[in-house]
Amino acid sequence: MFFVANYVESMYNNIVMERNTRFYVSxxxxxxxxxxxxxxxxxxARILIVGGKGTDVWCQIVLPIAAALLYVLIALLDGKxxxxxxxxxxxxNLVYYGIIFWKFDFVHYDALIGWLFIVVLLxxxxxxxxxxxxxxxFTWLLIPLHLAPLAAYAYIHRNFLLEGxxxxxxxxxxxxxxxxxxxxAMRIHTDGEYHPxxxxxxxxxxxxxxxxxxQITAFFQVERNTCSNLFEESFEISHIERYIRQKRKEGYxxxxxxxxxxxxxxxxxAKYPQLNRFISGQKVYSRGNDIQYSMVVKKEMTIESPDTxxxxxxxxxxxxxxxxxxxxxxxxDVKKSMELDSSLDSVIQYLNMIPSVVLKFVVWLLKxxxxxxxxxxxxxxxxxxxxxxxxxxxGSLGIPPIYHHLYDFGNLPVFGAFGCKRRxxxxxxxxxxxQRKYVDMKFVLDERIVDGYYYAVFFKYYRSLLRxxxxxxxxxxxxxxDID
Length: 484
What we know:
The chain is an alpha+beta fold. It folds into 2 domains: about 20-190; about 205-475, Chloramphenicol Acetyltransferase (2-Layer Sandwich), CATH 3.30.559.10. It is built from 16 helices and 12 strands. It has helices at about 1-20, 30-50, 55-80, 85-105, 110-130, 140-155, 160, 170-185, 210-220, 240-250, 255-270, 320-335, 345-350, 355-370, 375-380, 450-465; strands spanning about 25, 185-190, 205, 230-235, 275-280, 285, 290-300, 305-315, 390-395, 415-420, 420-425, 435-445. The radius of gyration is 29 Å and the shape is elongated.
């Protein structure tokens, strides 16, 4: 029985390993450059040999050349993390062969072979995608895959070959050779980290093992603000104030309660990583270990002083001092100039120059691109509406915290606010009265990323961390990973 259990566990681990297999190509690999040379030569040969003969320019020249060059660009520029995207130029190349065979006169030649080959092309395209995404991690399958279309192309033109006319086959032969060489350049990621595949976004990976109800909830509850839960908590801060005084004695002069509250949240995400999820395009994604913290700062605490937003990338491994250093560095960068000059402000200034009607279309287009995960990465980096958490201090304004709405644009799932310190008189069991200090916090939470029980467990842990803030000086021993 023990043997059977071990065997089942071993089989499960193998399945998980294969499912998470991701391939890449490195520009340090000679095979990668040899592949690039073959594909570029294929494009050049196609122009010199096929072009100018009254052929179908789009089908026989533009499409295969685009496929070859796109493959080279993906492999050289993005082959380390997104090699699976080479499935797109491979599909283009197979479409090229499909059109050739569709136009071939199979009615008077051999219709059965023609239709069979069209089906085979579709099968080959699916196999390539399966291999490159790790679902079928057998790279040797790609060699016959790349040879099959070339062999069939040579078969239907065998009369030319029998006459010794091999020149017309050179572009396709170079294309097949380059793709086969790419197979020898492919390597498996062995770092144990997650690497992206189809369905992932540049700012998060898609969660694929959610319960059925969790997968469909976002389709019924579309708007973020209609799916918000409100949570309020008060924290006794005597331990926190002692901790802050100690840090200031150690030389961290600007260390404050904001750093403690944020550090505790980050440490909570280390244990409960599902808090670092977000909803985009009615799908649930995880940011993994990238905790993106957004905040607003004013140049000066005056009515006339402008404000700006910026983003800080935090890690579950960060200590309170790590967070202090990252935040202060980001704030100082913003405050160095007399005017707002952050990249976000520059982009907004350009947008404000667009006429209102056109600007409305631009915003709609940005939302559409964001829905499908196609928003450029530099815009995601600038946007304060895309992140893990927005934290704001009402205490610096001398008022209690507010429930700040979530933004419909973007994917920010949590907005927290804390107020100014307040004193409260509390009656003890022996009848004595004790004065204590509290800070109130209010959170607006997207209920679709996790259920209420998960939020409850997280905030209980968050409260325990604030009772013992010295824990935040030590990196966590274990950082949990979100589910696949």
